[in-house]
User: Fold this.
Amino acid sequence: MLLPLMEEFYTIQGEGFHKGTAAYFIRIGGCDVGCHWCDVKESWSAEMHPPTETSKIVENAVKYSKTVVVTGGEPLTWDMTELTTQLKAKKLQVHIETSGAYELTGIWDWICLSPKKLKLPKEEIYQKADELKMIIYNNDDFRFAEEQAEKVRKDCLLYLQPEWSRREKMIPKIVDYVMANPKWRVSLQTHKYLNIP
Ligand code: SF4
Assistant:
């Protein structure tokens, strides 16, 4: 099976629960959610990225890490069954970063759900998410975060993460919010502070 592979790289997971741990990232092209603040707009058009055999992607991943993070773009634009079955056959831990806007396919050890207002997650993914990562761009995003947190499992970890270009303005608000509502945790894009991909 072919997937539009935008890039793949071994780095440190910067965000959420697995922050600080090494992982091999597979970035799949294609996303039509259209977040105006998206920091990977180059990923949107799948045609820009070479159709790549899943076996080749897996072959590269096993050389680097026991943990693979599949991201995008929106990886669930595509059927993830083949890729994740092959990764699991190699005994890798397989994580996904998704907006949840499309049907959940694939076998995942960890699902990071990051809902977007423009295209809400499919209902089925809420109960499967291991972490909920809400991007805070403006004040209304706190309301949206609470609304989305109502839908996930009780043991799903809850993160508020400032959108990068708004971090100076939003970090103090997130800090106050988490202290007042301690079910939430702060997530930062630490890879950007570390100057790594
Ligand atoms: S869902 Fe993710 S990749 Fe798609 S536009 Fe939004 S931030 Fe960008």
